[in-house]
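QA checklist item 7 of 12: single-chain prediction sanity check.
[x] sequence parsed
[x] length recorded as 181
[x] structure emitted
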Amino acid sequence: MSYSPYPQWQPWQQGHGVPQPWGGQAAPSMRASHADRERAVDVLRAGYGEGRLEKPEFDRRVARAYAARTVGELALLVADLPQGPVPHVVPAVPAVFRPVPRARVNGKAVASAVCGGLCLVTFGFTGIPAVILGHMARAEIARTGEEGDGLALTGLALGWLANGAWVVLMLLSFALALATG
């Protein structure tokens, strides 16, 4: 066997593991190559995978394919099978039975709820972003029909509570500063 520095392209190599159809173009008495046997076994595997062959018959045919000496013997093994895998057609599902697509949750509503929840941890510093994002989210939700109005309201409520607490704290500290003089 001679060595060639250039790789030889073969038609059965194009799929890289995908079963290739049986060629059958050669004369029936021509000697079968290893590639011919592998192509025939690929067709048998596809037929077995589609339920066209039972396991014992598949095993017998694969054994005969590997023992075959001519292309004609291989052609007889796959003659009653489609020449490669047959695509499985999925019937169309009526619209009545399809799941109803859910509306997307508004991202600003989620951010508003997160900022509102963080008001306790940040001592109210995320209250202003919670209020701003909550109002923006409610406007977008009304315009686009997205989900998340409850999240936006939660962020607004917590944000306004935090901002109100800051206002009360500032007024108390101002009144205390005026009282102490």
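[x] summary fact logged: Residues 1-21 have pLDDT under 50 and may be disordered.
[ ] second reviewer sign-off
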